[in-house]
Design goal:
The protein has 136 residues and is α+β, with helices and mostly antiparallel strands. It has a domain of 54 residues. It is built from 3 helices and 3 strands, in the order ααβαββ. A 3-stranded antiparallel beta sheet has the order 1-3-2. Strand 2 and strand 3 form a beta hairpin. The longest helix is centred in the last third of the chain and has 17 residues. The radius of gyration is 28 Å and the shape is elongated. The chain starts with a helix and ends with a strand.
Length: 136
């Protein structure tokens, strides 16, 4: 068994010879470049438009007309709409926008329940994704 005093002395020696990490020494703050923050005023032209753009869609996205009428009395789901997003914050915000826009376009629909699962989205690369089913 080793002597604790001897162990602590070697720790002190190690710390004394250690290379300081930037930001720990008080003098390091003067070496850092100052960054000015600039507020950008909203001119009101953007109207909440999404900054995410889809490329490679040759045909417009449209919905198939449903033959069965959705139940708006809470009695049960008759249709499902699936939404997919990558597991990144900006993609999750875009998912929220897609779902809200879809619900705004279909005021006659009543959401019965929602299921979510996480899995791999395969394309050129495989990435983790969130799959959300909105049952109406």
């Amino acid at each position: 068994m080793s002597d604790p005093k001897q162990s602590s002395r070697s720790d002190e020696e190690l710390l004394a010879n250690a290379i300081p990490i930037s930001g720990e020494d008080e003098g390091d703050e003067d070496d850092l470049d100052k960054v000015d923050l600039v507020e950008i005023e909203d001119d009101g032209d953007s109207k909440g438009e999404s900054k995410i753009r889809a490329f490679g869609q040759s045909r417009p996205v449209h919905e198939k007309t449903w033959q069965r009428k959705p139940n708006a009395d809470g009695s049960g789901a008759t249709h499902v709409k699936t939404f997919v997003a990558k597991l990144r914050l900006d993609a999750m915000e875009h998912l929220d926008e897609m779902i809200n826009d879809w619900l705004d376009q279909h005021p006659e629909l009543e959401v019965k329940f929602v299921t979510t699962s996480v899995g791999d989205l395969k394309g050129k690369t495989t990435e983790p994704a969130l799959f959300m089913n909105v049952w109406v």
